[in-house]
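Let us practice reading a record.
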Amino acid sequence: MGDRIEERRSFIKVVIGLVFVLFLVIVGYSVIEGWDYLDALYMTVITVSTVGYGEVLPLSDAGKIFSSILIVIGVGVALYVFTTAIQYIVKGQISNVFGRRRMQEKIDKLEDHFIICGYGRVGQSVARTFKAEQRDFVVIDQESESCGLASEENCFYVQGDAADYKILQSAGVKRAKGSGRCY
């Protein structure tokens, strides 16, 4: 989970970098060519996206040099941002699917374990005690934040309502030694 937070921060930094570059380019066109911000924005978007409609208005020599630099740097930055975004989305989805499947396979092998229903203050305390005593357990909680915390603490968990029999089955209730509701 910590890696995921770090990836999210890196992605946010990249997006902020792109917005900053686009802002500088818009200001650059406004200063160099004297364009209003809408024309400058439009020129920036069609240049960075490589649509290639042509210039919004005729360019001066300085504007042509500025556009050439924008094409090289801006397109590179935009591609980097889009690649990072796709990587962030795909990696997150794939790791969630495979990580969840691996965890479920391990839960399916547990026997004589305990089920902690709820991962609030009391549930976390019970989990710490079970860990200290090296007892197997599975946490059930409806809240994604609680499940994220359980994941960070290397606990097996199932997200859902502990009153739902399917959720209890996925936690291995038939093979469990005991269960209890904690808050």
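A brief commentary: The two ends are 22 Å apart (CA to CA).
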